[in-house]
Amino acid sequence: MEIRLLGEQIGAEITGVDVTSMDSSTFARIYRAWLDYNVIVVRDQALAPQELLRYSARFGGLTTHIAEGTRHPDYPEILVLGTNKFGPDGKLIRDVYMRGADSFHTDGTFMQEPFKATQLYALAIPSRGGDTYFASMYAAYDALPQALKQRLEGRYGVYVYGGRKERLGIKPSSLLTEAVHKAKKPCYHPIFRTHRESGRKVLFINPLGLLRIEGLEKAESDATIDELISYMIQPQGQYTHKWAKGDVVIWDNRCSYHRAAGDYPPEEDRIHWRVSIRDVPGTH
Ligand SMILES: O=C(O)CCC(=O)C(=O)O
Ligand SMILES: [Fe+2]
């Protein structure tokens, strides 16, 4: 098995491995590389749903996602991305086509414990476009001016699902049921989190969900959020994934932002199975 760094700091490709049958010492090397490089790419895999779930479960606990309407009919821990893209009137459904493409973000900030990781497995890939962009939260934290770090140390961000989308002029997603929208309960996450395993600090923000910074009045909170957003993406901390069918890509959602490019020909298929993984301390 070989491990090759793809970006300057993040993104690593693993070759010479079959994710369905590797032993625990091989997986330990992959897991180590994942902690070091945030995003792990394995190419050319042919996976049944159970095989994707079994490989994903080696990274943490499997969990369902609240976007019920896009769950796999037989495997609730798998979401199917990119299918049913056109409505009965033949029009493109923006929320399906643009899913994950509105902004760089981190997944699950609407929950007390955001996801540890997200894994995507590519079933169909368009002839052009449709990349996924990744960026390191470590690089973002490291780029912050010292004074800003001091000013915000110990402060919390207040999140609800899609909470900030309105401010960005984006409608709430139709992929969630009405009940889920109504149940929105704010969650609090430190602006600076320390990664449980690497011990390194990250800038933890999600522009789509972050409503305000606790303890700051509105104008200052809005201005500070904009300032933080301006540091999110650092060139040396980026990796762009160009998909091929059979790619399995997992990102560490505790230290990586990501965004779908949302730019492929809509009449072509771009379909992924997606698995959300939660942190289970004591297992790694
Ligand atoms: O489709 C993609 O490239 C990424 C979508 C996304 O944001 C996600 O699956 O969490
Ligand atoms: Fe996402």
Describe this structure in words.
This protein has a single domain, classed as Clavaminate synthase-like (Double-stranded beta-helix, 4-Layer Sandwich), CATH 3.60.130. A hairpin with a 6-residue loop joins strand 10 and strand 11. The protein is globular, with a radius of gyration of 18 Å. The strands form four sheets. Strands 1, 2, 3, 4, 5, 6, 14 and 16 form an eight-stranded mixed beta sheet that branches. A three-stranded antiparallel beta sheet has the order 13-7-15. The protein is built from seven helices and 16 strands. It is an alpha+beta fold. Bound molecules: 2-oxoglutaric acid (AKG) and fe (ii) ion.
Write a concise keyword list for the protein shown above.
binds 2-oxoglutaric acid; alpha+beta; single chain; 284 residues; 3-stranded antiparallel β-sheet; binds fe (ii) ion; 8-stranded mixed β-sheet; Double-stranded beta-helix
CATH class: Alpha Beta
CATH topology: Double-stranded beta-helix
Q: What ions, cofactors and ligands are bound?
A: 2-oxoglutaric acid, fe (ii) ion
Beta-strand residue fraction: 25-35%
**Rg result:** 18 Å
Unreliable stretches, pLDDT < 50, 5 or more residues? Answer: none
Q: Give the overall shape.
A: globular
The number of helical segments is 7
How many strands in all?
Answer: 16
CATH architecture designation: 4-Layer Sandwich
Q: Provide the CATH superfamily.
A: Clavaminate synthase-like
Distance between the termini: 21 Å
Which whole number gives the mean pLDDT? Answer: 94
Please provide the ordered H/E string of secondary-structure elements: EEHEHEEHEEHHEHEEEEHEEEE
Strand-pairing-aware structural class: alpha+beta
